[in-house]
Amino acid sequence: MPSSNPGRVLIVAGSDSGGGAGIQADIKSVTALGGFAATAVTALTAQNTTGVHGVLEVPPAFVAQQIDVVLSDIGADAIKTGMLHRPEVLDAVIGALDRANTKAPIVVDPVMVAKGGASLLDIDARAAVRQRLIPRAAILTPNVPEAEILAEMTISDQESMLAAGRKLLTLGSKAVLMKGGHMPGDQVVDLLLTATGISRFAANRIESRHTHGTGCTLASAIACGLAQGLVISAAVERARNYVLEAIRTAPGLGRGHGPLNHGHTVVG
Question: Does residue 82 carry a catalytic annotation?
């Protein structure tokens, strides 16, 4: 990778008009960490801190065209996927990646439900994610509710969280980051599972309603680290630290689940 390349990340995800999640959070996260973000928009959402109020689907062929033109010209050192709401969209994304024959590591954020509760992944698309996308992943980043769906089991403690992670690892992803933010306790514990072992990341819980877009932000920050040449554990550690500070310094916008401070790395 040329020294002038900051780390190119192609983000394949939906748009959040409120700016807290989706491609808006992705672009801000990658930029804040010194990377370059390109996008393929899969859906437009009318969204704010109180929830998702409307979704306009992007035709699958146009999703694929966005990926085609970015990879054929700008290229990517890592790819992050987010909202892929229908099987047809997933098919289009996989087809475009196959045409490009890209070797870039893929970070799969299995977006299923918005913070406000709206469904962002059709039931019919869940099997396709498990069977066709996860096996291509360098890392899968589910929260507990997403992991329960994908692993088809209940998670009630760290032991079952670890068991679910091991089960998800068998789907073919090179690594699984089990995010523990939904688990009770004063500490948030994330577990990184690979074929060679398990790493535990713990931090004191920050009590805040301003946590909209944390999953998108973390996944994109990890993708940026991989694009910049970090090994997976270092990319996860840097991304977690970035997200924690973004929560701690959140601007306090909106009446519901507010956005993070993605720009806290920017000085002046």
Answer: no
The verdict on whether 265 is a catalytic residue reads no
Domain count, the chain: 1
Rounded distance between C-alpha atoms, residue 226 and residue 224, angstroms: 5
Which of 31, 102, 141, 214 is catalytic? The answer is 214
In a domain, 261, yes or no: no
pLDDT of residue 200: 97
Q: Determine whether 154 is an active site residue.
A: no
- The answer to whether residue 217 is catalytic is no
According to the model, what pLDDT value does residue 5 have?
83
CATH number at residue 146: 3.40.1190.20
Catalytic residue among 7, 14, 213, 258: 213
Domain assignment present for 239: yes
Tell me whether residue 3 is in a domain: no
Domain range for 90: 8-248
- Catalytic residue (one of 215, 217, 225, 258): 215
φ/ψ (deg, to 5) at 91: -60, -40
Q: Is 224 a catalytic residue?
A: no
263 is catalytic: no
- Which of 249, 243, 254, 216 lies closest to 23, judged by CA? 216
Listed as ranges, residues in the chain with pLDDT below 50 are: 1-2
What pLDDT shows up at residue 2? 46
pLDDT tens digits, 132-158: 999 999 999 999 999 999 999 999 999
Q: What angle separates helix 232-248 from helix 214-227, to the nearest 10 degrees?
A: 140
- Given the residues 216, 217, 224, 258, select the one marked as catalytic: 216
